[in-house]
Design brief:
With 185 residues, the chain is an alpha+beta fold. Helix content is 16%, strand content 54%. The radius of gyration is 21 Å and the shape is elongated. Pfam families: YceI.
């Protein structure tokens, strides 16, 4: 009888520990979307990120995100598309794609308040890494974690010269805004 009680106690502890352990998620490219918005002396523009790779380790309880253990994202520069081959080429040159073929993000710290999560992490663009902070909305549904938000920054902060076209007569604005809706499953 004593052995049965001990077995029950150990089983309960193991089940409780398993329930609280971090779950691993990967980016679902079919559902996720990332847009890069900017301005130029001619018109506003948008580029779409076609491929984003990433992993999230998080604790979820009662359908809510309660702890982030890690978040890593990678965007192949050549997966950034505008629908215009000339603009795409200018983007790849500006981002120094031949030397730095990926844009990377790694979470450093976070703060969760309800469904709002303040993320601080290292963003690496064109060989320059900067700490950035942004606020995202989180949602947990049907085994998926969604993170939605945006962030704006100056390209020159990452050593990126805003692209020009038509012999410098069309100039891109320095600030870009990244809007994202990431699904992890």
């Amino acid at each position: 009888m004593k052995g049965l009680k001990m077995f029950s106690l150990l089983s309960s502890i193991l089940l409780f520990t398993f329930a609280l352990s971090a779950q691993e998620y990967t980016v679902d490219n079919n559902l996720s979307s990332v847009y890069i918005n900017g301005t130029s002396s001619l018109h506003d523009w948008t580029e779409t990120v076609e491929t984003i790779n990433g992993a999230l380790r998080a604790d979820v309880e009662d359908g809510k995100l309660v702890k982030l253990r890690s978040l890593h994202l990678t965007i192949p520069v050549k997966s950034i598309k505008s629908g215009k081959s000339g603009m795409d080429k200018n983007t790849y040159v500006a981002l120094k794609e031949e030397k730095y073929p990926e844009i990377k993000y790694a979470l450093k710290t976070y703060k969760i308040e309800g469904s709002t999560v303040k993320l601080t992490g290292d963003l690496s663009v064109a060989g320059v890494t900067k700490s950035i902070t942004t606020q995202v909305e989180s949602r947990v549904k049907e085994g998926q974690v969604e993170l939605t938000g945006d962030i704006a920054f100056k390209m020159t902060a990452f050593g990126v010269d805003p692209p020009t076209a038509v012999m410098g007569t069309i100039k891109t604005g320095d600030e870009v805004e990244i809007k994202f809706h990431l699904y992890f499953k």
